[in-house]
Amino acid sequence: MLRRRFNRTCLSPHDLAICERVFNKVCADENLDPLEPDAEILAVMVVAIFRNAHTSERELLETVRSRRQKGAGTAH
Fold first, then answer.
1. Interatomic CA distance for residues 23 and 45, integer angstroms
2. pLDDT digits (tens, 9 = 90+) for 32-76
3. Can you say whether residue 33 is alpha, beta or left, with left for phi > 0 and alpha for psi between -120 and 50 degrees?
4. pTM over the 0.70 mark
5. Crossing angle for the helix pair 13-29 and 37-53, nearest 10 degrees?
6. Residues 6+ apart with CB under 8 A from 38
7. Residue 36: how many CB atoms within 10 A of its CB?
8. How far apart are CA 64 and CA 43, in angstroms?
């Protein structure tokens, strides 16, 4: 059990690469500067979704986009 928990909290280089590609794609799609505070929120979201759902890159990207759209819809 401890091993599973450890694996969920520590991301491998492969996992980080997936998260980074999704982060970069969403930043590009939304014209978001990766150094802005909003980008930090995005990065936290990407990693959290990846850790909780451990999805494929495609599924991760779709989930992040969906949650960002929902968040933008409730911000008005």
1. 9
2. 999 999 999 999 999 999 999 867 999 999 999 999 998 877 655
3. beta
4. yes
5. 130
6. 32
7. 11
8. 10
